[in-house]
Amino acid sequence: MKRSGRWHHWLYRGGRPNRVARAMNRAWRVLHSSGLVKCLVTLEVAGWRTGRIISFPLVAADYRGERYLVAMLGSNANWVLNVRAAGGRAVLRHGRRRPVRLEEVEPALRASILRRYLDLAPGARPHVPVDRHAPLEEYERIVARVPVFRITPSS
Rounded to two decimals, what is the model's pTM? Predict the structure, then answer.
């Protein structure tokens, strides 16, 4: 494993951010929310236990005219649990706040989206056990472990 991969695994050991990662995520939320970088967003969703609004800096992958959020840490990532508990209702910040609905994509449709995501999110690469240049068949082996959500406007 490359040095940067070890660093990223240390930050998210056990699928959860450690203290350093949480501090870095708080700082990244400012940039992600600003709207200055096209694919960077901040997800705001009610916590599944507390109901308190929690913010997560994420990368929104664009694929075939749609936008998607990918859970690099898998199904037990806090934001995934929160989105599922909220019935997909959330807010995305990218310059301004927009209410959205996040619809989970079935595994059979995730491989190409996951490949696009890895092109856009270098920090996620150590957490996804497929090389970003691998053929789609390699991605199809892991799609059940990596949740993907389609972003749709909420009214």
Answer: 0.79
